[in-house]
Design a protein that fits this description.
By secondary structure, this protein is of the alpha+beta class. It contains 4 helices and 4 strands.
């Protein structure tokens, strides 16, 4: 198979630009400060639209870790700083081979996430050292439900 180098370069550039949209989506959520100044998870997962063909990525802020699943990403955001921790990036199962070492789309984070998903899922789903306690999380969710759309930054835990 003969590969056109310009076509390969265009595909590579398209692939690289996708990572910038991930950063923009994360930053948009961080700027909204859905849980005030508390660190939170950003769970991105693909869903198929009602037409059965079109897929879209849903970005969900959370205080707790979801179960690890294919075709999802999980980040931990720290409002007030520029830190975002990548917990996992697990593509759809049929795409796993594309991220192997030596491929154009090789990615260490994705490869490690796939390995952990297959062999050590508990580590992906384990609580982080800086996670809030269940009581603190309940208090934040209670305040959100009481205030509906009012800011809740004044919550003291």
């Amino acid at each position: 198979m003969k590969i056109n180098i310009l076509d390969a370069h265009d595909r590579y550039e398209h692939f690289r630009k996708q990572s910038f949209s991930i950063a923009e989506c994360c930053q948009d959520l961080i700027n909204q400060r859905p849980f005030g100044e508390h660190a939170f998870y950003i769970f991105a997962h693909a869903r198929t639209d009602e037409d059965g063909v079109t897929k879209r990525l849903i970005w969900q802020p959370r205080l707790t870790k979801p179960k690890a699943q294919t075709n999802s990403m999980l980040f931990k955001a720290y409002p007030g700083s520029d830190n975002i921790k990548v917990i996992w990036m697990i593509p759809a199962r049929e795409l796993w081979g594309q991220y192997k070492k030596g491929n154009l789309t090789e990615n260490q984070t994705v490869s490690e996430s796939i390995y952990d998903f297959q062999n050590n899922r508990e580590s992906l789903e384990a609580k982080e050292d800086d996670d809030l306690s269940d009581d603190q999380i309940d208090a934040i969710y209670r305040q959100i439900s009481l205030n509906n759309n009012k800011p809740f930054e004044k919550l003291k835990l």
